UniProtKB/TrEMBL annotation, chain A:
The UniProt record lists the keyword Transferase: no
Keywords: Membrane, Transmembrane, Transmembrane helix
Region (Disordered): 207-272
Protein name: Uncharacterized protein
Automatic annotation (TrEMBL), chain B:
Ranges annotated as spanning the membrane: 6-28, 35-54, 60-80, 92-115, 135-158, 170-190, 202-225, 237-258, 270-291, 298-316, 322-346, 367-393, 405-428, 440-458
The name this protein goes by in its record: NADH:quinone oxidoreductase/Mrp antiporter transmembrane domain-containing protein
Major place of residence: membrane
Record membrane topology: Multi-pass membrane protein
Domain spans labelled NADH:quinone oxidoreductase/Mrp antiporter transmembrane: 143-414
Lineage of origin: Bacteria, Bacillati, Chloroflexota, Caldilineae, Caldilineales
Localization of this protein: Cell membrane; Membrane
Length: 272, 476
């Protein structure tokens, strides 16, 4: 009971308006900031926060909350260690920029606010339900916006935390919360393994040259000499123009390259 | 039905000890890849035949030295009970047979030293899922959590020590993770039904949530992406075993759920959602197969088209038939294995399954190429392939309901067929530089065996009826 009161005491700090708002903002910030350290720390805090909030509001068996804490810490540690030891596995170019992510998040929040599907989980309060659904939506957004195993792992861990919390409250005697905890650790292990198995490449350019050289064909073994291919810009129509020197030289080259015999013909056609 | 105390050693305990022992031995002797895989395949086949022919009406075996074995005694772990029953032994035997086929493929090509261990571990997990008969919550509520664990294990199987982007394994985790909260809340509503059986709100809410959970678990369009991606990035043997194990498990659980809780089908819109998504899955599989440039992905998309038809046969009102579902699934297994045999051989010789790299390979490896084409075309129901009879039967039934749906699926199938025609033109086209690859006698023999099996099933699908009738007892 002593351990229960510890969890409940910590949870009491979060079981109010500012606490819920803090957790909601923290989850949203994982999508917006898109930094692996922030994602790892934030996700761990959210996982611990949700379980303590549940301990304060529903008073589950202390072992269950303890198991939730252990699984949250172990799974975060596993993902964190994989990211620490294999940095190229987490530093990948994001599939979106901050503008798109904030727009997506805003659209999601707006749509939810306007439509208000009125989803209500049994025995959970409305605010708790909203928090769990918000975590689920942000996790789904995270899964949708990235193909990197690290961010997928964070998204999946947050989703399983929601499920674990529901199991602990709705099906308390079933032991499902512990079972989900085991599944969560296995999931984190799988994601950590995939992060470690990511090829150590820093750019698309290196990836292309590596994959081609592995084939062993004659034409593919030639070292690339041209400039690095640029990643697509946010606004392709406003791409930077070439400098003034090239602007003058290029037409001149074109004129020089034109066969001299065509000039009279063109002029004749123009005359007609 | 069973005594409170088992009368001797529960057979199920021996079974799991055998599985774990096989996984451990496979790991310890992993350097002898082919030998371990071959021994494992033989053991799995023998066990499958034995389980299939097990007579549970005589539940006690009296062995010498006073040892008795109780066939039906449950294995209880923390109030989770696993038990062999007449209804689940055919599914267990099917899992063993699939495992044997995967191990045999590893014995042939030795693509990963840990593959045998991983297959045995997956088999242990899926067997537990099948044999779970009693738990503090309904087994179908617990199932998605077990699926998360098993899919997390599948990440390693799909990776198989390969280089490149192998995120497909992680993305396979999304459907079971999404389905878990839905089924948990559905499970809570299920527990409330006995309190007021007359209240339709309980059954409707429980039915909607469980139906949605299974809808997600069945990975229709747009949740199918990881399957096609894994067909490209992973070894065909790994993609084959992970996919078939998962799909057999989900189909079995969906059958359990629909039989136990018929209100899912009667009081909710689940059949309409599932049919619509099944149709979209079949159409998308065909359309996407048309434009792909990777033979593995083409195989994956053809399998998605086939899976869409299975979903449609499972859910569509007036068409719903477990016999048809099982028939389509059995034909799917045969077609996928035939293709996988060819794809593995091609990948090992050429080094990649990119279509451009396969140019002219059909002239050097005709039997493996034919296995790829015939197996792949079987997945879209091309005439004279294994899948034709099933697809034809499903399309005929569908056309009676609505000819437009049947036409849409047929057009999608034509799209996938065009993809295979493109692959065939590349494989049997003339290559500028002579290829050095060659087909070994073992590859020829295996591909030939698979092709003969495909042709036998294509011409005499009734041969499967006895097996399907037995498996149907598990699906109700």
């Amino acid at each position: 009971m002593a351990s229960s009161s510890i969890f409940a005491t910590i949870g009491a700090w979060l079981a109010n308006g500012p606490g819920i708002l803090f957790l909601s903002t923290l989850v949203a910030s994982l999508v917006l900031v898109w930094d692996w350290r922030w994602a790892l720390g934030g996700a761990t805090l959210v996982m611990l926060g949700i379980s303590t909030l549940s301990a304060a509001l529903h008073d589950p068996v202390p072992v269950v909350t303890g198991a939730q804490w252990v699984t949250a810490l172990v799974s975060s540690l596993l993902l964190g260690l994989s990211a620490y030891f294999h940095r190229p596995g987490v530093i990948v170019p994001p599939h979106s920029n901050w503008l798109l992510r904030s727009l997506a998040l805003g659209f999601l929040a707006g749509a939810w606010w306007v439509l208000d599907p009125g989803v209500a989980l049994p025995t959970f309060t409305r605010v708790e339900t909203d928090l769990l659904i918000w975590i689920g939506l942000c996790s789904a957004l995270m899964l949708g916006l990235s193909a990197a195993p690290f961010y997928n792992g964070i998204g999946l861990l947050l989703l399983t935390t929601v499920a674990q919390n529901i199991a602990a409250v709705l099906l308390p005697g079933s032991g499902l919360a512990v079972l989900i905890g085991i599944a969560q650790i296995l999931l984190a292990l799988g994601c950590a393994y995939t992060v470690l198995a990511q090829p150590a490449r820093s750019s698309k350019w290196q990836m292309i040259s590596t994959s081609k050289s592995s084939t062993g064909n004659r034409e593919e073994s030639v070292e690339p000499t041209g400039p690095r291919p640029r990643l697509p810009r946010l606004f392709p129509g406003r791409a930077a123009q070439p400098g003034p020197v090239s602007r003058i030289k290029e037409p001149a080259k074109t004129l020089n390259a034109a066969p001299s015999s065509t000039s009279p013909k063109i002029s004749a056609e123009e005359g007609t | 039905m069973n005594p409170v105390e088992p009368f001797g050693i529960p057979l199920i305990s021996l079974l799991f000890v055998f599985f774990i022992g096989a996984a451990s031995i496979s790991f310890l002797l992993r350097t002898w890849v082919r030998l371990v895989a071959l021994a494992g395949a033989s053991a799995a086949v023998l066990l499958a035949v034995w389980i299939w022919s097990l007579d549970l009406s005589l539940p006690i075996w009296i062995l010498p030295f006073g040892i008795n074995v109780d066939l039906e005694a449950p294995l209880v772990l923390s109030s989770y009970s696993l038990q062999l029953r007449v209804s689940n032994t055919p599914v267990l035997a099917s899992y063993l047979l699939l495992a044997a086929l995967a191990l045999a493929l590893n014995a042939l090509h030795a693509h990963d030293i840990l593959f045998s261990t991983q297959v045995w571990m997956l088999l242990t997990g899926y067997s537990a899922l099948t044999l779970l008969t009693n738990a503090p919550a309904a087994p179908i509520v617990i199932a998605p959590v077990l699926f998360i664990m098993l899919t997390a294990l599948s990440v390693y199987v799909l990776h198989g020590g390969r280089q490149g982007n192998l995120n497909a394994g992680v993305r396979l985790l999304i459907p079971p993770v999404l389905a878990t909260p839905l089924l948990l809340v559905g499970g809570w509503w299920l527990e409330q039904i006995p309190l007021n059986p007359q209240d339709l709100v309980f059954t409707q809410t429980a039915g909607t949530l469980i139906g949605l959970g299974f809808l997600v678990l069945l990975t229709p369009f747009p949740l199918h992406g990881a399957w096609s991606a894994s067909s490209k990035s992973s070894s065909p043997a790994a993609a084959l075993i992970v996919g078939l194990f998962y799909q057999l498990g989900v189909l079995y659980l969906a059958a359990q759920a629909l039989n136990l809780y018929p209100f899912i089908f009667r009081q909710t819109d689940w059949p309409v959602w599932m049919s619509a998504l099944g149709l979209l899955t079949a159409i998308w599989g065909g359309v996407a197969a048309m434009g792909t440039t990777h033979a593995g992905r083409l195989w994956g998309y053809a399998a998605i088209h086939d899976w869409g038809l299975i979903l449609l046969a499972m859910a569509a009102p007036e068409l719903r038939s477990w016999t048809l579902v099982l028939f389509l699934f059995a034909l799917r297994v045969i077609s996928m294995i035939t293709s996988a045999i060819g794809l593995i051989a091609l990948e090992r010789q050429v080094g990649s399954l990119e279509m451009q790299r396969l140019r002219g390979v059909g002239l050097r490896m005709p039997w493996s190429s034919a296995a790829v084409l015939l197996g792949g075309l079987g997945l879209v129901g091309f005439p004279l392939t294994a899948g034709f009879a099933g697809h034809w039967a499903a399309l005929q039934s569908l056309a009676v309901l609505d000819w437009r749906l049947a036409t849409a699926i047929l057009i999608a199938a034509v799209g996938a067929i065009l993809g295979f025609v493109r692959l065939a033109r590349l494989m049997f086209g003339v290559q500028d530089a002579p290829l050095t690859v060659r087909e070994s006698a073992l590859n020829i023999g295996t591909a030939l065996g698979a092709l003969i099996l495909t042709l036998i099933v294509a011409t005499s699908p009734q041969l499967l009826s006895a097996i399907l009738t037995r498996i149907l007892t598990a699906f109700g």
